Amino acid sequence: MTTILVTGGAGFIGANFVRFVLRHRPSYRVINVDALTYSGNLENLTDIESDSRYRFVRGDIRDGAAMAALMDEADAVVHMAAESHVDRSILDSTPFIQTNVGGTQVLLDAARKSGRAGRFLYVSTDEVYGSLALEDTDAKFTEETPLAPNSPYAASKTGGDLLCRAYHHTFGMDIVTTRCSNNFGPYQFPEKVIPLFVTNLIEGKKVPLYGDGLNVRDWLHVDDHCEAILTVLEKGRSGEVYNVGGNNEQSNVELTHAILSLMGCGGEMIQYVTDRPGHDRRYAIDASKIERELGWRPTRSAWPGALRETVEWYRTNPAWWQRVKSGEYRRYYEQQYGG
Ligand code: NAD
Ligand code: DAU
Hints:
Helix 1 (12-24) packs across helix 7 and helix 2 packs across helix 4 (94-113). This protein is globular. Helix 5 links the parallel strand 5 (120-125) and strand 6. It is α/β, with parallel strands linked by helices. It has helices at 12-24, 64-71, 86-91, 94-113, 152-171, 193-202, 222-235, 252-262, 288-294, 305-316, 318-326, 330-337, and strands at residues 2-7, 28-34, 54-58, 76-79, 120-125, 175-180, 182-184, 207-210, 216-221, 241-244, 249-251, 270-273. It contains twelve helices and twelve strands. The chain has a domain at 2-187 and 221-247 and 279-301: NAD(P)-binding Rossmann-like Domain (Rossmann fold, 3-Layer(aba) Sandwich), CATH 3.40.50.720. The two termini are 34 Å apart. Strands 3-2-1-4-5-6-10 form a seven-stranded parallel sheet, with helices on both faces. A three-stranded mixed sheet has the order 7-9-11. Bound molecules: nicotinamide-adenine-dinucleotide and 2'deoxy-thymidine-5'-diphospho-alpha-D-glucose. 2'deoxy-thymidine-5'-diphospho-alpha-D-glucose is lined by residues 84-86, 125-127, 181-182, 192-193, 196, 208-210, 215, 217, 252, 276, 283. Nicotinamide-adenine-dinucleotide (NAD) is lined by residues 7-8, 10-14, 34-37, 39-40, 60-62, 80-84, 99, 103, 123, 125, 157, 180, 182-183, 189.
């Protein structure tokens, strides 16, 4: 049995990744360590919580002693615990620096000192590259694009990303990094644009579109991302970075109209609001390296089908997002773990 320590496994991508690994790798065990911040939700994992190959540990990646103990049980680490929302980082960057930079350093040191933990995979983001111009429609981020993060969130993820590079270079640690575009799918916290817009419309509320709505994102289904992470973990070359993307660029206006149409709503439900400060204009990923070297490519992200399925998931799981939006979802683990 191979044991993977997943950090942040109670969040959106983490919960989907834990489920993906248990389903596709019968010889793997997963230890999920998560601090259960506002976005960590054990309800994302209720269907697998009694699986004998799965264990949850409530813990903070900034806690060196706790991370050292977990490293002694792990054959590999998939590190995705993070403060993940750009808008929150604009309001207060403190937890972003503490978790995304400081927490990553604590984890790296715990892994380095452990006699057991092998490969360390860092789940980074395409936001480390900054922004492309809208007019330059052919440009894409490659792994060689200079790092130029624009938000406090992106800068904090870049800090973690560069620490991984440095620990590989300096200490010879076996580290691989993925830099992925925007994910969509089930269990995404409804502060992010797709679940926010879908759930607002179900509630009869308008959707707040930032600025002129022309910003472009490259959308990837979360299960494609999970498969890419597992592929890089198992087959990636040590010290390498792999871009991951859906080849599925949509402007926010296009995305919004697609959601409105799936929900049977009209353009009057759009409310144009003040733009996000420093709002990156366009992200587009060149994912040819992971395809060429490791044979991964997205197979679940094509629109409109994948978007329709995701919208349908939120429509058929109102109890999940209503508890998240009302804050009621915290009761379950407060009963189990306190505070
Ligand atoms: P999320 O906010 O849904 O989940 C983050 C998880 O990390 C939560 O369960 C939270 O409780 C946990 N966490 C936060 N601080 C912690 C700490 N100090 N110690 C332990 N656990 C802590 O985020 P997500 O959207 O699932 O993103 C997961 C990772 O993927 C992040 O590293 C993010 O930067 C990266 N990423 C996200 C996307 C995307 O589109 N969502 C795209 C590319 C990369
Ligand atoms: O690109 C990868 C990144 O994608 C990840 O690293 C981040 O963790 C993840 O949050 C996501 O960042 P974005 O800022 O792109 O995602 P968000 O869902 O917040 O916004 C997507 C786009 O929609 C962005 O251009 C801003 C816009 N938007 C967002 C919200 C929340 C709106 O127009 N209105 C909104 O209310």
